């Protein structure tokens, strides 16, 4: 008997230490932990539960949970407790709870689960309340930040759209300016066939019914066709830019561009020489925009030749690695070193007041850049202005349709003076 007493004492002491350890663990938890029996009386109540409710441990043990109304409501009320004691685990919706002791509001998550004995029967219920206030604040801050970011993105998209519209309007304005500067040449180009038409029609009137009258009317029709084609080209160029990035056959495009400016250059006695590499692959570009860029460069070259003894423009193009390079070079005085850094700036111009918008080169560089290309000034001091366009070439082989289009244009423009 004497040997059993120390053993029982040791067991009792061990159990006491385990209870103390368990109690310390419960009290050191940041979560509220409590337990209740089948009579809905509190059997476990840790320190965080005291801070949450203001009810200390001695007053909580054995007390009915329903006698702490706000806490009882927070944890789901009698219905939730009965479901747990029937064997169901619950996770209640997160709730806001004012902690009177601390004078703060907290956002809490409540978990309720049954506690079973060795036989599997539910002997009690366990509740855990987790404070997620800090996480909710972070979440709300993130949501607020995302909302502001979305608002900023919306404003940015609207600004970019407005900027794109403004750029399109500027580009369209430059088109109109370009057409205006070519008015003299266009008038001259139309006056010649118009005089021819008048002459042929007059002859047919004076010789009605004769075979030669029919021939005269046929020639008049040809001259009207020339006038129609020129007007059609001018109207096509004047339309607002549309379309996407496509494969553009350069010889065909250059031929069309030269047909727009040809009459004006002829009046001003400016010669244009072309040197295009044979078999030049199509380039990836917006056809209308690239035509506007080429026309702007040709008009700048034309203006630079005013008063020069030799008036000549050379247009060259060749394939280089994954790109096609186009150069427009004139025999004018060139671009002074002091302004080379500024020539692509909007509204910068060397022309007299009222003779230029200062937007031609700026718009041209923007249009080329939008297609993934580059526009730069590469001329050396002492030579005329030389502008270089670098564009992506088409990846696959030139199609038969492009070959058919190019054959005539290449034959005319590969090498030689066009105007």
From TrEMBL:
Molecular functions per Gene Ontology: ATP binding; phosphorelay sensor kinase activity
Electron transport found in the keyword field: no
Gene3D superfamilies: 1.10.287.130, Histidine kinase-like ATPase, C-terminal domain, PAS domain
EC number: 2.7.13.3
Reaction catalysis annotation: ATP + protein L-histidine = ADP + protein N-phospho-L-histidine
Signal peptide per UniProt: none
Residue ranges constituting the PAS domain according to the UniProt record: 18-63
Pfam family, one: PAS_4
Record flagged with keyword Secreted: no
InterPro entries cross-referenced by the UniProt entry: HATPase_C_sf, HATPase_dom, His_kinase_dom, HisK_dim/P_dom, HisK_dim/P_sf, PAS, PAS-assoc_C, PAS-like_dom_sf
PAC domain ranges (all copies): 91-144
Parts forming coiled coils: 135-176
Source taxon at top rank: Bacteria
Keywords for the protein's UniProt record, in alphabetical order: ATP-binding, Coiled coil, Kinase, Nucleotide-binding, Phosphoprotein, Transferase, Two-component regulatory system
Domain (Histidine kinase): residue spans on this chain: 185-395
PANTHER family assigned: PEROXIDE STRESS-ACTIVATED HISTIDINE KINASE MAK3, SENSOR HISTIDINE KINASE
Protein name: histidine kinase
Lineage: Bacteria, Pseudomonadati, Pseudomonadota, Gammaproteobacteria, Thiohalomonadales
